[in-house]
Amino acid sequence: MSQKKILLVEDNEFNRKIVRDLLARQPYGLLEALDGEAGVEAARREKPDLIIMDVQLPKLSGLDATRRIRAEPETAKIPIIVVTSFALSGDDKKAMDAGASAYLAKPYSPRQLLDAIRKMLGDA
Amino acid sequence: MGAHEDGLPLGSVPSTPVAAPGISERSAGFLLSHTPLGSLVRAVARLRLSVHFKLLAAFMLVAVVVALMGAMSLEIITRMSRQSVAMHLAHQRVSSARQAQHALAMQMSFTAMALVLRDEATIASILRENNRLNAMLAEIEEGAPGEEREIIQRIRTAQGEIMATVADVANLVRDGKIEEAMQFQLTTGYPLFQQVEGLVEQVVRLEESSMGGLRAATALANRQAFYLMGGLIIASILLALLLGFVTSWSFIIPVREAQGFLGRLAKGDFGTRVIVPNQDEFGALAARMNDMSAELRRLYEDQREAARQLETLNSQLARASQAKSEFLANMSHELRTPMNAILGFTEMILDDVYGEVPAEVRSPLEDVQTCGRQLLRLINDVLDLSKIEAGRMELSLTDYSVDEVVETARTSLRSLAAEKGLEFTAEVQPDIPLAYGDGKRITQCLTNLVGNALKFTKEGTVAIRAGLDGERVVYSVTDTGIGIAPDQLDHIFGEFRQVDASISREFGGTGLGLSITKTFVELHGGRIWVESEPGRGSTFHFAIPLRMAEVTEGT
């Protein structure tokens, strides 16, 4: 069976590298997008199995990108883990309202992220 | 403002308690505004004389009129008494004239009798009546006018002739010549009598007419005196009323003006002016009141200016504070991104994601992890504080379990307690129902208190307890640490507070934890307090409603 595809939308290089390194030995393919618009575009093109979406992104915020992905029938069903910035109050609720399947507060533990990914993809 | 029309003040009586204008008030108002009395009142007010002098002058004027009336009545009484004496005298003269008439008649009668009776006694009676006539004439003659005096003189002359005739008649009678005597009397005596009678009658008429004239003059004088006195009385009453009205209103007007002025001032119309025509004490008072009003206005405007400046300053400060809070929030967020990477990479290295970690590197890596987490907590605290200060701290209300709160706090700090070799216990009252509130923040509060307890305790026990007290959940954290001095107990929940600077050197920490904890407890409508004994330990408690009201509170 083909590798499951995970789309990471994150603008910070180091945070992308964490996920890249974390998933290096895992049976998942990783796609990366650097801003919200690119994220929506990649989701439409690649139809990933899971999206990890940062909230604070250039061009289009993670929450708006999530809403757009949910609005398109082709991508509406893709599970999205929103990485909320704990800085803004009620971010978790906003993330769920925007259509997130789950959320993680930054800074997150890579272990927690992996658990969440596995749970979402039914590999737990 | 203050441009009060220079009219009469009756229309401007303030709403403050003055008796409702009665009939006298309204008639006074009419008199003041529709008659020259108004100008007179203002003219009196304008006089440069003291109130005392004005009152005295008014009373003196009335007193002078009364005194004048007294003098006139005295004069009238004197005149009337003189008239009464004159009347009495006139009466007497009339009476004398009538007696003279009577004496003459008697004389004639006795003369006739002497012709019949022929005795000496009757003749003597004639002489007696003659004497009486003369005496009366003498009385009348005294003080009689010239014309009357002349008549009396003629009476005397005629009377002399009569007496000569009577003597002849008497002699004829004594000689027995009766016929002759009678003839003589008839031809000579009687015409003489008739002449005298006519003259006496004239005198009587004159006296009577003089008395009548006197009576008429007296009556006229009495009538004149009556009208004069009546007129004077009415005039003095009118004068007294006029003076009373004018003087009193020349004082009432400034008082009314002052009343209106004070009313306006009391309503905050500072700088309002009172305008009075008076140049007396009331005028001086009004000038002082205007000074006061101007001063009040100046003070008021100074104060308003100060308040405006303060307001501007305040909003500048608020903006500055807001900017600071936003800066802090942004900074915290920016700090969090690299922290995520540092902690993430460290965890992955320790989890052997990059291959097995050599034993000697593991320990310093764990130190990096511990310090990184500590730094993250500080960043979170600063962020929370900045949100609290910016008024943007909001609770995220959900159902949560008290058990879970205690368990999370205990788990996250268990390793620290173990490292320090402290006994660490947790005890939760069984069967506490599901709570409603911001479970994460409550957990943060309990974690803060437990973290502090572990930090300030070198040996002994740190115990967590949670239980229900009515509708409230009470969390308690007891330690056997250094304790807090009584005089510090009130301050420790303030921002950036630690008991003293040396403590922060020894134990670390920013002093933000308790302040943030207190804010969250209060946002839940709860209360936090501490009991402590220096050297023996402390117990921190906080009590919050088991189920919060659905309305989320701001700071």
In short:
The complex is a heterodimer of chains A (124) and B (555). Helix content of chain A is 42%, strand content 23%. With 124 residues, chain A is α/β, with parallel strands linked by helices.
Written description of the protein model:
The complex is a heterodimer of chains A (124) and B (555). Chain A is built from five helices and five strands. Chain A has 124 residues and is α/β, with parallel strands linked by helices. Chain A has one domain: Rossmann fold (3-Layer(aba) Sandwich). A five-stranded parallel beta sheet of chain A has the order 2-1-3-4-5, with helices on both faces. Chain A is globular and about 30 Å long. Chain A starts with a strand and ends with a helix. The relative contact order of chain A is 0.17. The model of chain A has no long low-confidence stretch (mean pLDDT 87). Chain B is α+β, with helices and mostly antiparallel strands and 555 residues long. Among the domains of chain B are: 139 residues, Four Helix Bundle (Hemerythrin (Met), subunit A) (Up-down Bundle), CATH 1.20.120; 99 residues, Orthogonal Bundle (Helix Hairpins), CATH 1.10.287; 149 residues, Histidine kinase-like ATPase, C-terminal domain (Heat Shock Protein 90), CATH 3.30.565. Chain B has twelve helices and seven strands. In chain B, the strands form two sheets. A five-stranded mixed beta sheet of chain B has the order 2-4-5-7-6, covered by helices on one side. Chain B has a two-stranded antiparallel ribbon with strand order 1-3. In chain B, a hairpin with a 2-residue loop joins strand 4 and strand 5. At the A-B interface, helix 1 of A face helix 7 and helix 8 of B.
Oligomer: heterodimer
Overall 3D geometry of chain B? rod-shaped
Derived structural class of chain B:
alpha+beta
Report the order of strands and helices of chain A.
EHEHEHEHEH
Sheet with the most strands: spatial strand order of chain A: 2-1-3-4-5
Enter the CATH topology name of the domain at 397-545 in chain B. Answer: Heat Shock Protein 90
Which second-level CATH architecture of chain A applies? 3-Layer(aba) Sandwich
Low-confidence stretches of chain B: 1-16, 551-555
Helix content of chain A: 40-55%
Low-pLDDT segments of chain A: none
Question: What is the arithmetic mean of pLDDT of chain B?
Answer: 84
Report the biggest beta sheet of chain A as strand number plus sense, adding barrel if it closes.
5 strands, parallel
- Name the shape of chain A in a single word: globular
Number of helices of chain B: 12
